[in-house]
Structure formats: structure tokens, C-alpha cells
Amino acid sequence: MNLAAGNARMSVTEKLWRIRWAFVLLLCLIAGVGATMLYSAANGSIHPWAVRHGARFAVALVLMIAVAMTDIRLWLRYAYAFYAFALVLLALVEAAGSIGMGAQRWIDLGFVNLQPSELMKVALILALARHFHGAHAEEMGRPLRLLLPSILVAAPAALVLKQPDLGTGLMLLIASATVFFATGVRLWIFAAVGACAIGAAPVAWQVLHQYQRQRILTFLHPESDPLGAGYHILQSKIALGSGGMFGKGFMQGSQSHLNFLPEKQTDFIFTMLAEEWGLVGAAALIGLYSLVLVYCFAIALSARSQFGRLLTIGLTTTFFLYVFINMAMVMGLIPVVGVPLPLISYGGTAAVTIMLGFGLIMSVHVHRDVTIGRHGEDAF
What we know:
This protein has 17 helices and three strands. The longest helix has 34 residues, at 269-302. Strands 1-2-3 form a three-stranded antiparallel sheet, with helices on one face. It is mainly alpha-helical and 380 residues long.
């Protein structure tokens, strides 16, 4: 009996034993921190944010386990179909999406507002991992070999930037570049693309929306408009600094509870956490995120198939970008771009997407002994 056949006949119980439950517990712990901070944000009430956060995480957790139990070869087979589905949803946003906070990013389904750009973060990595599965290193030195995957990246990135959503667009590009690098794309190609990007910077500046240009200028000089464009980041820095080493105490943050801190339940929730729990609390959360990254990279290293390895690397990079961009944004290290903090910030589509990505990573681990031919011929 070969390894692939053996895994195809694995029972549900055997697959459940292969799931890293310590990893699942770690995710539950982070989500618990999120529910606690949302309880604080609502001044000691589970409504409206904490209870919904917990309910969404419970649903997403069940989804993650279901995805983890699904044979990795099934995800290989339908990778392009999932990508096409997400791309169609992005096009629908452009045609008939709902508008919120000045951007057209959502599809109103009645019971929930779906943000297709979040789904695309997973779908794009799936498609790229499928495309590069079985590719030889020498093929990566040929630019024409990279034409199709470049189109796979450019199409959703262009639609997302048009919404406009600069943060998500950058995340798609950076995560895709990581997959390209892990595949073995030559460094001179990255250098050439980087040079072209630098040369196109003046044109890109003109293409940016006025509010996006203002965010960049505010990032460079936040004190120039302390009551206007620079208000968010200045209040965030004040809250971060006032937390000190051990914080002001649970629900005792002055900046957040006196409503100086904007969007404390979403984009700036890390600032509220640091104000209430100080440097120690912020470092503890960063430690939990670091453990998640270690688990994910360990799964990538143990993957037998190139598809599983690339999929895990791409999704892990996406998770890292969520964490890094949000924390760097509230510290004033990068412009404000509106990226939520994973499993902490209030939000529906982003939380489900993140857990879907973890489910795929866990599926790679559960089915780590599965062997897949270069062209996916063993995928059922």
C-alpha cells in the first residue's frame, strides 16, 4: 500500500488525532484575548462586539476543523475554481457592492456583509501554490514562465486597489512575492520588478486617491494637523505611551474609555490593549502570535509536497502581514491602512478568512504523508 492510498483511507478518528490541538488551543487563547478587549471597549458589556466575536470565532473554528479534515488533494484540484469564484466576487463588488466609510468593498448578503478581498487572500495563495506545484528550479529563471502567475496576482490586486483598499492590495502583492521567492524565482527578477516599481512611484502617487496621499503625508508629519488627519495616530501614540510597563488596568484606559481613541474595537484595538495592560501585555500577545508562526513554519518544513509547502508559506506570510501591518500602523511606523489585528479586532469576513487559512495549513499537516505527482495526477 503506498502512502497516498493509505492516507486516502484514513478514518475520521485518525485525522482528528493528527490535528495539532495545542495549536487550536493557542488560537482559542488569542480569540479569548480579543473577546476580553472587546468587552472592555464596550465599557463592560458583551454587547455589541464581544458576544458576536465569540460566536463568529466558534463558527470559524468548526470551519477550520472541517477544512483540516478535507484531503489536501481536493484543495489542489479545486484551487483554480476557488480563485475564479473569489475573482468573480471581487468583480461583483465593483458592479454592485455596498459602500461603507467611503470605500466600496462589501457585498450585502442580507444577513452579513461579505468582503471578497479577504477571501482572495486565501484564494490567490491556493492558485499560486497549485500553479508552481512540481515546478523545477531552472524553470524559474525564465520570465515567460512567470507570465501566468503574474496575471493571477495582478487581476485581483488591480480590483482591490480600485475599491480602494491599499492595505489589502499590498498584502496580496507581498504574500504572492513570498510564494514566488519560495518557488525559486531568481533574485535578479525581484530586483528588476523593484526598480520598475521605484521608477513608477511618481505615476503611482498621482493615481492614489486624495485621502490615501493625505495618509502618507500625515504619516510623515502627523503633528501638522493634530485635530484633523493626524488625530488618529497622535491619539494612538499617546495611549501607547501612557500604558507604561504594566498598563493602567483592565477597563481603565483613559484614551480609549474617554473616546479619544478612534476605532478602538477594530483598527486600534492593539493600542487599547497596550494602554490597559502595558508593555508586558503587548509583549505577551506578540509572544502568542510568534508561537502561531513557529507552528506554521514547522508544518511547512514537514510538508512532503511542494503544493503543501508553498500553500503553508504563503498563508503564514499573510497572517504575519496582518499582525505586522496593524501593529506598525498604530505605532506610527507605517501609514494607516485599515488592516485588522487577527482574532482580536472585531470583524466577520477577516476572522473567517484567517481561520480558513489555518484550516488549510492544518490540512497540510494532517495529510503530510500524501504524495502528489508533479502535475497533480494523484489528486484523485
